[in-house]
Every structure is written in C-alpha cells, then in structure tokens.
C-alpha cells in the first residue's frame, strides 16, 4: 500500500539522513519514478523533504526535522525492540526484526540511544535446548484464516496416527509456547489445541468462523493448558544418584517430570537421595532408564520392578546367541 511505502521512505530518510532516489528505489523495490512521486506526496503533506542534484545530492529531510510516529513510552519501545532482536524470532522472526528496525528509525535521537542499548543487551531465544526448529509450512495459511476470521479445514496427524485426517475447525488463534506453535480452534463445538507442525495442509472454506462462545484466545488457551497439565497418574519417585550425576539430574528438567528434584540426604556410600514428582510410572521409567547405573530407583517398588524388567529386556535385546551372560 502507498501509505506503508510513504512511511517507509520517511523512516529511511530519518535513519540515513540522505539517500539517492535509486538507493531508495532499491530498498523499497519500486521504480525511481515512484520514489519521485512519493517525495512529492510527502512534501505536499507538510514533510520538509527536498531533492538536491549533483554527485553528492539525493533526497533528504530538512536538518533537525524528526517525527515520532510511535507514540510509545520508552519502556514499551525497549520491550518491542528487544523482542525484535531475538535470536530466531520464532516463526515471525523476519517480521519482528523488520518492525524493530522501523521502530528504532522512527524515534527521536534523544530517545534512541537507550532503546538501541536494550536491543543490543537483551537476547530472546525461543528455541529450547537441543531441539531442532519446527517445520511450519501450514503457519502462513492458518494466519491468513485468522486475519479473515474464517473457518478452515486442516489435514492433521495426531502424535500416534499413521495417516492424517481432515477436520473442519473454527480458529480462536495461534499460540507459541517454548518454541512450539499451536492452533487453538473449536472442532464440533469443543475447543481443542492442534500442534501446527502436524498440520499437513490447510484448505480455506470461505465461510465465517463460528466459535461456540465469545471467549478470547487467552482464556481458552489457559483452560486447555491447565487441563493438559492437571495431575492424573502423578507419582512421587525417590532415587539414589551417583554424586557425579546429581548436578546434571537437577539441571536437566525432563518433560516427564511434574515438579523439580528435592534433595533428601546422602547415603553412607556418598550417593545422594533425591525425590521428584513424575507424570506417571511409565513416564518416570522412560525418563530415568537412560541414566543407567548412575540412578537407582528406591521407591515406589512398582517402578523399581519396572526398571529392572526394562533393563533385562534391553540386555536380552543386545545379547547375541552364544554370548556369555553379563556379570
């Protein structure tokens, strides 16, 4: 839109002081003639912009002229610019970085130094440790449906499904949680969450979304999140830990845990006794088995028996016929 381009031209001139018409055209991906028309429009609107001929000429603003097009407080500007300077910006990284640059260029010199310092001193990284970025080919189509407030059909594969299935949903919105994107939408009148990386395809319907209630995205998300996190088969697990591994166990929060580790004491052999709640026995077994002999489950007895049984099955799996049994 022309209004966006006029603003972009003004911001470029505020940032750089003077630019040639071809350089402005290159940055905005328009023709030089379009830049000339935009400069005339800015001048007609009262912006003190002028052109100078010659080798050092170009388009410039009257010296000392600045306009604060943001209307934001310093705290608001620092927060937005710092977010735009994030390491990856999540799925909206390009847009955030562009918005950050525009905000920085739009503010007066007296306010810019503090805001720019926040951009350089604060880094927001959305991706979790040792996790590859999600592939999100469906995100633009879902975002377009939200902007249009339309019902959509999604080709979706649940976590344990071999094939995706089509379902018609009425979106509430998109949520980014710890680097993972979710679509919150009503399916057959019931609010649900769908992991965007599992959406294979999006088909527009052209019909308005018909959500079952007037609640906003934040309220519906909170309900779905709390329901997912509610304790069900939660179990408290006590373990003995090799002291060399105890710091690692405390530091690495497993997704299967329902709470942090607690230290209950130290055994005579130096091993630490620690406890933590897990979401279920199965989750605890899966999370702790990988620590091998560094972590011994003390209780509950049922989990201790499951750990022994799982370890025996692993040994049997890797024992070749004729091999001597392990000591």
Automatic annotation (TrEMBL):
The keyword DNA-binding is annotated on this UniProt entry: yes
Organism superkingdom: Bacteria
Domain (HTH deoR-type) ranges: 2-61
Any one GO MF annotation of this record: DNA binding
UniProt cross-references to InterPro entries, sorted A to Z: CBASS_pafABC_assoc_protein (IPR051534), DeoR_HTH (IPR001034), HTH_11 (IPR013196), PafC-like (IPR028349), WCX_dom (IPR057727), WH-like_DNA-bd_sf (IPR036388), WH_DNA-bd_sf (IPR036390), WYL_dom (IPR026881)
Keywords associated with the record: DNA-binding, Transcription, Transcription regulation
Keyword Transcription appears in the UniProt entry: yes
Lineage, broadest ranks: Bacteria, Bacillati, Actinomycetota, Actinomycetes, Pseudonocardiales
PROSITE patterns, alphabetized: HTH_DEOR_2 (PS51000), WYL (PS52050)
Protein name per Swiss-Prot or TrEMBL: Putative DNA-binding transcriptional regulator YafY
Transmembrane segments: none
SUPFAM superfamilies, sorted: Winged helix' DNA-binding domain
